[in-house]
Design a protein that fits this description.
Layout lengths: L2 H7 L8 H25 L5 H7 L3 E6 L7 H10 L2 E4 L5 H4 L9 H12 L3 E9 L5 H4 L3 H18 L6 E6 L22 H12 L4 E6 L8 H16 L5 E4 L2 E2 L9 H9 L4 E9 L3 H17 L3 E6 L25 H12 L14
Parallel strand pairs: 1-2, 1-9, 2-3, 3-4, 4-5, 5-6, 6-8, 7-8, 8-9
Helix pairs in contact: 8-9, 12-13
Length: 362
């Protein structure tokens, strides 16, 4: 007899024998456990964005303005993702094709699409040696420094309040073992060009998170990773405004997912910045590809300040490396095995506390 039947019979519950109480407790616990399992599996999110949001994170995609008329593409975008990055439309050649003549039409199409649907926007990118318009490629010295700062200020001001995170500076370090800065016309204006760009971005849009973004910075032992780490450490120590580090994470046979990836994420995070996986794609197919996606997601969820993942395109056919079929949807827009592994890993996460949502502090 349990307490309920004791009450129903009018007999005092104190007549329960100890063994009956134990059985009752065990049965009760089993019921509670069953309820928890049922409710947790019943609430498993069915899209990448919804699942990431449950973990206090975003799951985004790089998108192209000229594909916003493709209904399959937009259908996947709106269903699955809660953040976007313009793949090319915010680059310097797109936004300032002639000096001091700004063009935001295509970037605006993406920003408006995202904001009207509650998606975050990652701005990409304000200062980069590549995809510079002709007028900038031919500049140097003080004129180039001022033109770069003017570009940062004008674009970040135009989008003030609309951008979650800016890739303020992109790919400023050299490949290989030197750990040196990449030689470029921007670098030749002086080693402080990166911090100057960050200060200008902060002044223009104090609410946006300001990121340094690069590739081949995934393996903790690589000289390039260590060099970026030392720069971020130096910026934090000197109060240069930086809030996040973007790891592009383009993985293939030449640049494979490294087993120390989680160490890289957590080491950057320990400097007091958010870490974002900004351009994820993994060449391959089937189980090998799916399991690598799973590990990347698990690594991010294990690091509280890894607060978002962006894949660099939607369908394989949208990818800059389409031959490598590196994305989560096939050419027809069907979910791949890699998609299922990614969603499973997102849904399985949750032991990690949510990342900081504090606004920029410097
Ligand atoms: O839009 C023109 C089109 O009108 C023209 O007919 C065609 C002819 O080549 O070119 C088209 O522009 C291309 C553009 O992508 C849009 O498709 C450019 O040539 C091409 O260079 C450009 O490539 C982009 C690349 O950056 C340029 O550096 C890729 O789409 C874009 O995915 C890629 O993104 C970069 C990130 O910004 C930084 N990290 C690496 C990543 C992959 O390279």
């Amino acid at each position: 007899m349990n307490n309920a039947s004791a009450r129903a019979s009018g007999r005092p519950a104190t007549r329960l024998r100890p063994r009956s109480a134990l059985v009752s407790a065990v049965v009760g616990l089993a019921l509670v456990a069953t309820a928890v399992v049922v409710s947790s599996s019943a609430s498993a999110a069915t899209t990448l964005g919804a699942s990431a949001a449950e973990k206090g994170r975003y799951f985004g995609a790089a998108i192209a303005a000229n594909k916003l008329s493709d209904s399959t593409y937009v259908g996947i975008l709106n269903r699955e993702f809660n953040s976007v990055t313009p793949e090319n439309e915010m680059k310097i050649d797109a936004t300032e094709p002639q000096q001091n003549q700004f063009s935001f039409t295509n970037a605006d199409r993406i920003v408006n699409h995202a904001i009207s649907r509650g998606m975050k926007v990652r701005g990409h990118t304000l200062a980069w040696h590549s995809q510079q318009p002709g007028w900038m490629q031919n500049m140097s010295g003080t004129a180039l420094r001022n033109a770069m700062l003017n570009h940062v200020t004008r674009v970040a001001t135009y989008y003030r309040g609309k951008i979650d995170s800016w890739d303020v500076v992109n790919e400023a370090f050299a490949d290989g073992g030197s750990g040196a800065r990449r030689d470029s016309n921007l670098q030749r204006t002086g080693n402080d060009w990166i911090e100057a760009a960050f200060r200008a971005a902060r002044a223009a849009d104090p609410g946006a998170k300001l990121c340094y973004n690069d590739y081949n910075t995934d393996d903790w032992t690589h000289a390039k990773t260590q060099a970026v780490y030392r720069m971020v450490q130096d910026f934090k120590q000197r109060g240069v405004p930086i809030d996040c580090v973007g790891l592009q994470s383009h993985f293939n046979a030449q640049s494979p997912y490294p087993s120390n990836y989680r160490t890289t994420l957590s080491s950057f995070a320990a400097l007091g910045v958010d870490v974002q996986i900004t351009e994820l794609d993994i060449e391959g197919s089937g189980t090998q590809q799916a399991e690598t996606y799973r590990r990347v997601v698990q690594d991010c969820l294990a690091v509280p300040r890894c607060n978002g993942i962006t894949v660099w395109g939607i369908r394989d056919s949208d990818s800059w490396r389409s031959y490598g079929t590196p994305l989560l949807f096939d050419n027809n827009g069907n979910k791949k095995q890699a998609y299922n592994a990614t969603l499973e890993a997102l849904n399985a996460g949750g032991t990690t506390p949510p990342p900081t949502t504090a606004p920029p502090t410097t």
